[in-house]
Amino acid sequence: MFLTEVLDRNSVAGPVSANSKRHALQIVADVAERTLGAYGLEADAILQGLLEREKLSSTGVGQGVAVPHAALPGLTRMHGAFIRLETPVSYEAIDDVPVDLIFALFAPEEAGSEHLRALAKVSRILRQKELREQLRQVDTADALYALLNRTETSHAA
User: Fold this and answer.
1) Is the dihedral angle over the CA atoms 13, 155, 133, 24 positive or is it negative?
2) Does the N-terminal peptide bond of residue 15 adopt cis geometry, omega within 30 degrees of 0?
3) I need a surface site. Which of 78, 131, 133, 151 has the fewest CB within 10 A?
4) From the candidates 23, 69, 115, 155, which is the catalytic residue?
5) What is the pTM of this model?
């Protein structure tokens, strides 16, 4: 699984402003609706899926990164959405560092191990300090998308 298989250019936004974790997840849902709308999924349903998962434990994985995820009805493959926040928000991350880079994954309800592999891949890529720093420096969604794609091709595993 490559990021380019799950991340569409229309599913990338930033820098955007959010004042809380919930607001950040709402923005993620709004951005994800751009592509998931083709499956009949609206932002409210996407947000509910993300919030249900957050009730189990925070998806803030550390170093200012969160990887929220949800299994959603009607999907036939994995989809992603990425946002960069202008200012980090408190996210209850495992290291208590506020989050400003959010890569959300959306899986078919029956995805199983594919979902887990995708989560591992995204986490592994976003653990790269140089990439995180570069993502925090660019000012357009196009540049964010290009960085994520470049990282993918130069670090293909």
Assistant:
1) positive
2) yes
3) 133
4) 69
5) 0.94
